[in-house]
Specification:
The complex is a heterotrimer of chains A (296), B (521) and C (445).
Chain A lengths: L1 H13 L4 H5 L3 H10 L6 H13 L15 H34 L5 H10 L3 H19 L19 H13 L3 H18 L1 H9 L4 H33 L5 H10 L3 H29 L1 H6 L1
Chain B lengths: L1 H16 L3 H9 L10 E6 L14 H10 L4 E3 L5 E3 L2 E6 L5 E6 L13 H12 L14 E6 L4 E6 L41 E6 L5 E5 L11 E6 L3 H9 L5 E2 L7 H5 L4 E5 L3 E8 L9 H8 L4 H5 L5 E3 L22 H10 L3 E3 L2 E4 L2 E2 L1 E7 L5 H13 L4 E7 L1 H10 L5 E8 L6 H4 L13 H12 L3 H18 L2 E3 L1 E3 L2 E5 L2 E2 L16 E2 L1
Parallel strand pairs in B: 1-10, 1-11, 18-19, 18-20
Antiparallel strand pairs in B: 2-3, 4-5, 5-7, 6-7, 8-9, 9-10, 11-23, 12-23, 13-20, 13-21, 14-22, 15-16, 16-17, 24-25
Chain C lengths: L1 H22 L19 H7 L1 H8 L3 H8 L3 H6 L6 H32 L9 H14 L10 H8 L4 H11 L11 H15 L7 H4 L6 E3 L2 E3 L4 H15 L5 H4 L7 H9 L21 H9 L4 H25 L2 H9 L2 H19 L3 H11 L14 H13 L3 H14 L4 H14 L7 E3 L1
Antiparallel strand pairs in C: 1-2
Helix pairs in contact in C: 1-4, 1-17, 2-3, 2-16, 2-17, 6-7, 6-12, 6-20, 6-22, 7-8, 8-9, 10-12, 16-19, 18-19, 18-20, 19-20, 20-21, 21-22
Classes of the chains: A mainly alpha (296), B alpha+beta (521), C mainly alpha (445).
């Protein structure tokens, strides 16, 4: 975590402009604000100040996005929606590709190519296209023939479950996420099905799927944890394009307005989410895999 | 929150007293309590303003918001004649060196406090205060002193005779009680909690970057639309779709490519919104290579403006700082046209030689960066075409696109650029003083020509229309030759509103000036 | 450059139109559904069902009709020969309307300008020009207020500028033209008189040579001839009366829905100062007469005018549908390539806007004119943006205080009609005067 803060602070130090530049119209005011906000303090002073505040649960206040509001409050307000989006996308992506992989692993299948085609578009493009297509379709089938459009229409301006579902789909599939997860699960399944204990079970005439399921859980947990940072990155774009109010869109605005405490706060919390996901995945692996327990 | 709720209830009640009062009475009579439906107008801007303070306004988006929240002593009536707004009358001294403005007594600020002469005096002094560094200082420079004569009377003294000072008193007045001291700063908390006397008050900046404005209940006149929402929709082509989808009621500027679509719609009304605006490529005259007039002229003659314009829409190519229909446009002055031979001579005169296709001087290549604002629609296409045109002529051109924050710093404050692509919009006075006078606060490139300064001063102080016109047509001629910028084009511009919005009259520059009279079906 | 682009577009349009004109011919198609009000027997109905009638009408004068349809009136008038008399006569009538409208714009701007300069103390010929312009307005029957123009004359007679004082006293005497002196203002005045009496412009007329030059100049003051457009209007009106057309050729590309309406309008032309006016025909296409009378009884309210345009559009949408439904194959080609409904809409609404202006309803006129403009090519005179539209727009802008915006409309005309500079410069002077004490505002983006 401390390393993540170090990297983020370094990136901020290298970025052009500052919050003082946004607000100030004179060099005097800029200098005053820079001093007031401590933007010119030595790098490590800022680093240790932030770490020490963080240990006290204080992320500071927003400078330009919502001037003066505590960052904890800002993030707490938007985080549930974003977390839901990320984990729903993970769950949807992994469960659906798992189901598919169960049948396709080790075989030739057209569905693999279809999945690849579906998920080839980067998330920003997929989100935009999905929105345009959904809105045009709704417009042509409702408003133009004079009936009431669905409640979610148009997607861009209305918060609706349809928009969230679309965001979950795009995030779960876009930027090749769908095909990559599918192929990872397929490899894991192929490996498990070829393993000795499956052969043993098969020769015993026992049901195979409980064995496979138990053995695939650990790689699945690791895969899920590994995907969290990708999805956290993707959610910034998806929220921005689809006008969803979440932490991702807030981070975008924080960068645009050079509200570095806010950007830093969000990034650190994201890093915490990634670390937690890794930890949980490890715990699951330990719980499932007797060999790991034994080594402990 | 409770206050907002109370205000909403009040607005609902007011609405009941307004146009639908008969309905409300009927409903009450049969004992069914139906809430009155508040009317909302949602309009799109490419980007929501980061701060709201008329003293620091630089963009049209901010100017339009100002028109909702703030008022000046005088404003334009529907026939564009100067008419009292916060003032009730003015008495100009015989020598025209001073005037006493009497203020309305029925005006309150959005926070409920009364509007007084102290607010007027504070605004003028704060705008003039060098510490404020207002981008609008030019609009009060002619006032030498402002003094309150009681709560509702202000005496203004002038540095030169002002036979019709009310024509200049249209800058917005701000509440003195919300600022500390005699100066203002962009950092004041006012920027996100603006308080004005206008027909609408800012309720909040929302998480989706929209901004909600609600009708100000204590406004002295009846306002037709209860709520306005500024929607940030950065994708301009989607703005037109949203209007057709009836999810927006207004677009302030329609892309040329969407005009035909909207013109054919029976749900949409298009209104000319012709701010007199033109695009330009400005040069920094304080540094090489553009400190040399020959380089500026040469570059101006290496650009094929017609080809730059073609992909982005239809417009008119200009030879100077006015649109072609302007009374100041000098039709005898021709735009720079592509002339490679002449450009070559000029560059060689300036000490450049062409080695292997590239222009060089003292071993250094002729190289510069074009800086453009990200928010300028279709600017990317223009900059990239410009880059390829000039590169093919042996000039090394880099490009950079700045967001609003960096643009304010690099261009407005530090004036740190080689050349910049942007657009100026003017009200109908087409006053280019601040762009071209050596003292102008928008003269980013540091252009300076004594004769131009003199002519701009003559124009600003002229009492004779013929002299003013003559002077500014000369300015056009001189500026074209000096080439502090390459004047590009003006584009046709329209606003689009849903036909459910009625009685719409758009101010040719400030857009929302008459919004109080708008109604919704 | 702009000019060449415009010509190129017009040429391509002309070629398309020509191709269509050559291609017409064919059998009428039977009516299959109920037709909208006023449609049956309309010019559009006739043309799409019987394109051969159209072919017969235009076959000898095709090029002149093409120019007329595209709004290129000077070109249409330039065709000589009896076979061109129909399109030439129609173009002359439109030119008369255009110039009379421009004359009003120039005169109103000049009078406002002269009033604003009364106290300036700067000697100029402006009061004398105001006198001449106001007298013209009265003579042409536009000045209903009966305002006395003698004040300007008396001011001019006591001018410190000898040339102006001399011209003023000559104009006030009965012996103008007999004095033998040379005075540029009275000389031009006499030229106008000669041209009007002859009913046509002579090749040596100063109105040809010096039309875009100031008539009087002193220092920074440049004043343009206030009589130019009155003379043009009168001459074209005479020409139009000589070349009266009837039947299909009177109604073709006109604001009148059918030949009968065009005939009635032609009979009233004298009173209507030149052009064909069919504003009253909006009720014939199905606009509720009560709505129209309520509109004309009410205030000069722009929303009502917009509602009127919406209703016209709804009716004409039905016309379009009916035309598509009933057209023969050649008729359908005619309908789209000549933009029959769109150009009828434009001309009808211009008539309405002009009528509203004549009745002192500039806000409504402006609302109608703005809604008429085809904004897909807003700076080009065309079949859907006829020249008269820009003159009406300029006039409505001027009367509603939008002087600067009036210049935008005039700028479009300036390229096709060099004489518009006289109006443009006068309105420009007024725009500058109105902003004289203001400090301009400018913003980025």
């Amino acid at each position: 975590m401390a390393v993540a803060v170090l990297f983020v602070l370094l990136a901020i130090a290298l970025a052009p402009g500052s919050a003082a530049d946004i607000v100030a119209n004179s060099s005097e005011l800029r200098d005053g604000l820079t001093e007031h906000w401590g933007l010119d303090d030595p790098f490590f002073t800022r680093y240790f100040r932030f770490i020490s505040a963080l240990l006290h649960g204080d992320l500071g206040q927003s400078l330009t996005y919502r001037a003066g509001e505590p960052i904890v409050d800002l993030v707490a307000r938007s985080a549930p929606a974003t977390m839901f989006l990320v984990f729903a996308a993970l769950a949807a992506s992994i469960s659906s590709t798992f189901c598919l992989a169960w049948f396709t692993a080790g075989r030739k299948s057209l569905s693999r190519s279809i999945l690849r085609a579906l998920s080839v578009a980067p998330v920003f493009l997929a989100a935009y296209l999905a929105m345009v297509i959904a809105d045009s379709w709704a417009f042509h089938t409702t408003l133009q023939v004079g009936i009431q459009p669905p409640e979610w229409f148009p997607l861009l301006l209305n918060d609706s479950n349809v928009k969230v579902a679309l965001a979950v789909f795009v995030l779960g599939m876009g930027s090749s996420a769908g095909s990559e997860i599918h192929s990872n699960i397929e490899s894991a399944l192929v490996e498990i099905r070829r393993s000795g204990y499956i052969d043993a079970a098969r020769s015993r005439g026992a049901k195979l799927w409980p064995h496979i399921l138990r053995n695939v859980a650990a790689p699945l947990a690791a895969l899920t944890a590994a995907r969290v940072p990708y999805f956290l990155g993707g959610v910034i774009v998806v929220e921005k394009v689809l006008h969803l109010n979440g932490v991702g869109a807030m981070l975008w605005e924080a960068c645009r307005l050079r509200d570095f405490p806010l950007a830093l706060g969000i990034t650190v919390l994201s890093a915490a989410v990634v670390c937690s996901a890794r930890l949980i995945a490890d715990l699951i692996r330990v719980a499932i895999d007797p060999r790991l327990r034994g080594s402990k | 929150m409770a206050a907002i709720f109370e205000d909403k209830m009040k607005s609902v009640q007011n609405y009941g007293n307004g146009i639908f009062s008969r309905w409300t009475l009927t409903v009450a009579a049969v004992g069914i309590a139906l809430p009155a439906i508040a009317t909302t107008l949602r309009y799109a801007e490419d980007q929501a303003p980061g701060i709201v303070n008329p003293v620091f306004t630089t963009t049209m988006t901010e100017a339009r918001v100002n028109e909702l929240l703030f008022e000046g002593l005088y404003t334009d009536n529907e026939d564009l004649m100067t008419t009292p707004d916060l003032a009730s009358s003015i008495e100009v001294a015989e020598d025209a060196m001073s005037a006493v403005v009497t203020l309305r007594r029925d005006v309150v600020w959005h926070d409920g406090t009364g509007f007084t002469a102290a607010d007027v005096v504070f605004t003028i002094n704060a705008m003039q205060n060098p510490e404020t560094l207002s981008t609008e200082v030019g609009r009060v420079e002619w006032i030498e002193e402002a003094e309150a004569l009681g709560d509702y009377s202000v005496e203004l003294t002038f540095s030169s005779p002002q036979p019709s000072p009310q024509d200049k008193l249209n800058f917005k007045i701000l509440p003195h009680s919300h600022f500390n001291g005699d100066a203002m700063s962009r950092g004041d908390s006012f920027r996100t909690n603006p308080i004005g006397t206008g027909p609408y008050r800012l309720v909040q900046f929302n998480d989706d970057n929209s901004v909600t404005f609600e009708v100000f209940d204590d406004y002295r006149e009846n306002i037709g639309i209860d709520e306005l929402i500024l929607r940030e929709v950065s994708d301009k082509s989607y703005q037109a779709r949203l209007l057709l989808y009836e999810s927006l009621e207004a677009l302030v500027r329609v892309l040329p490519s969407d005009l035909a679509l909207l013109q054919n719609s029976r749900q949409v009304e298009l209104y000319p919104y012709q701010t007199n605006s033109w695009w330009f490529l400005g040069f920094d005259e304080t540094e090489p290579p553009f400190d040399d007039i020959r380089v500026r002229q040469a570059v101006s003659q290496l650009v094929d403006v017609e080809n730059l314009l073609a992909p982005i829409g239809t417009g008119e190519i200009l030879s100077g700082p006015y649109v072609k229909s302007s009374p100041f446009y000098n039709h005898e002055v021709e735009p720079w046209t592509r002339n490679e031979r002449e450009a070559r001579v000029l560059l060689e005169d300036a000490g450049f030689t062409q080695e292997g296709g590239s222009w060089e001087r003292d071993g250094e290549p002729l190289s510069f960066t074009i800086t453009a604002h990200q928010g300028l629609e279709t600017a990317q296409m223009v900059v990239i075409n410009l880059q390829s045109q000039l590169r093919s002529k042996g000039i090394d051109v880099q490009t950079e696109f700045l967001d609003e924050a960096e643009w304010k710093v690099r261009v407005w404050r530090e004036r740190d650029f080689d050349s910049m692509l942007s657009q100026w919009s003017f009200d109908r006075n087409e006053d280019v003083y601040s762009q071209l006078h050596s003292d102008g606060e928008r003269n980013f490139g540091g252009y300076s020509n004594d004769r131009v300064d003199e002519l701009l001063d003559i124009a600003r102080n002229a009492t004779d229309p013929f002299d003013k016109r003559h002077a500014l047509r000369l300015v056009h001629e001189l500026v074209r030759a000096d080439a502090p910028m390459l004047f590009l084009w003006t584009l046709d511009s329209y606003a689009a509103l849903s036909r459910n919005t009625r009685n719409v009259l758009i101010h040719p520059f400030y857009f929302f000036t008459y919004v109080g009279n708008w109604r919704m079906r | 450059m702009k000019g060449s682009m415009r010509i190129a577009q017009q040429n391509s349009c002309s070629l398309l139109t020509l191709a269509t004109l050559f291609a017409c011919g064919g059998e009428p198609v039977a009516e299959i559904a109920e037709l909208p009000i006023g449609y049956e027997g309309s010019t559009i109905d006739t043309l799409v069902q019987n394109p051969s009638l159209f072919q017969a009408e235009i076959q000898d004068s095709r090029a002149a009709w093409v120019a007329f349809h595209n709004g290129n009136l000077p070109e249409a008038i330039a065709f000589t020969g009896d076979e061109y008399s129909n399109p030439r006569g129609r173009a002359a009538a439109e030119m008369a309307s255009l110039h009379f409208r421009l004359a009003q714009v120039q005169t109103e701007a000049l009078l406002t300008l002269a009033n604003s300069q009364v106290d300036s103390g700067r000697p100029s010929a402006l009061p004398l020009f105001a006198h001449i312009a106001q007298a013209e307005l009265t003579n042409a029957g536009f000045n209903d207020s009966g305002e006395d123009d003698s004040q300007w004359l008396s001011v001019s007679m006591s001018s410190t500028l000898p040339e102006v004082a001399e011209a003023a006293s000559l104009l006030s005497s009965d012996h103008l033209g007999e004095s033998g002196t040379t005075n540029p203002i009275t000389d031009r005045y006499l030229s106008h008189k000669t041209e009007r009496e002859s009913g046509e412009l002579s090749n040596s007329s100063p109105l040809y040579e010096a039309v875009n030059l100031p008539l009087w100049e002193l220092g920074s003051i440049k004043l343009y001839d206030p009589q130019t457009h009155f003379t043009f209007g009168l001459i074209y009106q005479t020409e139009a009366e000589k070349l009266q057309s009837s039947g299909l050729s009177a109604a073709l590309f006109s604001p009148c829905p059918n030949s009968e309406a065009a005939r009635v309008s032609n009979e009233e032309r004298q009173e209507l100062r030149g052009g064909i006016n069919c504003a009253d025909q909006i009720s014939a296409i199905g606009i509720d007469a009560e709505f129209i009378s309520a509109m004309m009884d009410g205030d000069d309210d722009l929303q009502t005018a917009r509602t009127l345009v919406h209703q016209v559009d709804e009716r004409l949408d039905e016309w379009s549908a009916a035309a598509v439904r009933t057209a023969s194959p050649d008729g359908a080609a005619l309908l789209t390539s000549l933009s029959l409904v769109e150009s009828f809409r434009a001309k009808l609404l211009i008539s309405v806007a002009g009528d509203l202006l004549n009745q002192g309803r500039p806000r409504q006129a402006l609302a109608v004119a703005q809604a008429t403009l085809d904004i897909t090519s807003p700076r080009i005179v065309s079949a859907t943006n006829p020249a008269l539209l820009f003159a009406v727009l300029a006039h409505a802008h001027l009367q509603t205080g939008h002087t600067r915006e009036a210049l935008d409309a005039l700028e479009v005309l300036a390229e096709t009609f060099p004489s518009v500079i006289t109006v443009d410069e006068t309105v420009g002077d007024l725009a500058v005067t109105e902003g004289l004490h203001r400090i301009g505002d400018s913003k980025e983006l």
